């Protein structure tokens, strides 16, 4: 494995001066009287793989949109390294180290894999587009450094063979990996994945699960994984939050949550065998 981004992650050290990397405190979010989130609280620690599960419409994507301040909850607080994110713009949350992927693929289909992932670097660019014409030398060096980081990510996600292909022509599973690559290019400390295996076949799902675990283990990046399917989450998550109709119905380690009667009743349906798909 190569690339500055990857090395830096492995080397990261130093004491943290906050209780939790992220802390969501009693969030409430309504849209014209419809309660999308109704009192949800949780925290995520450095390097943790935290999952949020719940049926469609439970409020999972709204939680992501609240964390990166696309939505502004009417009540509650969201702390990042001890400081509130409330009222920031989404690009500011990205600059602080919070990256995400989307439930539906949001890439530039006519651009190549390399170019798409490179767009993730813009959050980290110092020279900017305008400065580029004035300080050509500096901008060029920065561009080269960015390309090196992107090549490292391409290696890491094993998508070298497609690097010059327009993304729109690639298989769905590969596109989802490119999207993850773009989020990694932002050099995040937490990666929020919104249903990363939705619509994937078994093989693609297993590949993606492996890359998610590699991001956690090898890059040391914390992850919030949103899923409505329990199988993957129970296999790979450190802790799980279960939501239903905007409410939090259980939180804990996978084995614990699987036994929770509220989860069995409200989420899975009583006759469903847990742990099977
Ligand atoms: N921008 C919005 N405007 C109005 N209602 C919304 C908006 N976003 C989400 N909702 C509503 O909030 C609820 C939760 O949606 P969502 O967060 O997308 O759930 P999930 O991701 O768990 O499927 C749903 O009832 C949905 O219709
Ligand atoms: Mg959703």
Question: Helix and strand layout, with pairings?
Answer:
Elements: H1 4-11, E1 22-31, E2 34-44, E3 49-53, H2 60-67, E4 75-80, E5 83-84, H3 90-95, E6 98-100, H4 113-119, H5 128-134, H6 136-156, H7 172-185, E7 190-194, H8 202-219, E8 222-227, H9 230-236, E9 239-244, E10 247-252, H10 254-259, H11 261-268
Helix pairs in contact: 4-7, 5-6, 6-7
The structure holds adenosine-5'-diphosphate (ADP) and magnesium ion.
The site of adenosine-5'-diphosphate has 11 residues, from strand 2 and helix 2.
Describe this protein's structure.
By secondary structure, the protein is α/β, with parallel strands linked by helices. The chain has a single domain (4-12, 19-268), classed as P-loop containing nucleotide triphosphate hydrolases (Rossmann fold, 3-Layer(aba) Sandwich), CATH 3.40.50.300. Helix content is 40%, strand content 22%. It is built from 11 helices and 10 strands. The chain has helices at 4-11, 60-67, 90-95, 113-119, 128-134, 136-156, 172-185, 202-219, 230-236, 254-259, 261-268; strands at 22-31, 34-44, 49-53, 75-80, 83-84, 98-100, 190-194, 222-227, 239-244, 247-252. The protein has a 6-stranded mixed beta sheet with strand order 6-7-8-3-9-10, with helices on both faces. It has a 4-stranded antiparallel beta sheet with strand order 2-1-4-5, with helices on one face. α8 (202-219) links the parallel β7 and β8. α4 runs parallel beside α7 (172-185). It is globular, with a radius of gyration of 19 Å. It starts with a helix and ends in a 9-residue tail after the last helix. 38% of the residues are buried. The structure holds adenosine-5'-diphosphate and magnesium ion.
């Amino acid at each position: 494995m190569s690339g500055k981004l990857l090395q830096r992650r492995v080397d990261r050290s130093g004491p943290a001066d906050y209780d939790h990397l992220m802390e969501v405190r009693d969030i409430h979010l309504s849209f014209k009287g419809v309660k999308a989130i109704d009192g949800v609280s949780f925290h995520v620690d450095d390097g943790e793989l935290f999952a949020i599960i719940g049926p469609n419409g439970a409020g999972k994507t709204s939680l992501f949109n609240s964390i990166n301040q696309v939505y502004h909850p009417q009540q509650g607080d969201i702390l990042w390294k001890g400081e509130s994110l409330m009222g920031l713009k989404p690009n500011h949350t990205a600059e602080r180290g919070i990256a995400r992927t989307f439930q539906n693929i949001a890439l530039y289909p006519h651009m190549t894999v390399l170019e798409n992932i490179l767009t993730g670097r813009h959050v980290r660019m110092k020279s900017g587009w305008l400065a580029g014409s004035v300080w050509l030398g500096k901008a060029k060096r920065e561009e080269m450094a960015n390309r090196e980081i992107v090549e490292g990510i391409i290696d890491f996600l094993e998508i070298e063979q497609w690097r010059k292909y327009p993304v729109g022509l690639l298989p769905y599973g590969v596109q989802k990996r490119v999207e993850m690559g773009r989020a990694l290019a932002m050099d995040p400390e937490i990666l929020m994945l919104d249903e990363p295996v939705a619509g994937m076949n078994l093989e693609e799902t297993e590949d993606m699960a492996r890359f998610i675990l590699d991001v956690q283990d090898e890059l040391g990046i914390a992850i919030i994984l949103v899923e409505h399917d329990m199988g993957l989450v129970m296999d790979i998550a450190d802790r799980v939050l279960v939501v239903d109709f905007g409410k939090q119905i259980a939180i804990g380690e996978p084995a614990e949550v699987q036994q929770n009667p509220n989860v069995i009743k409200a989420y899975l349906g009583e006759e469903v065998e847990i742990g099977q798909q």
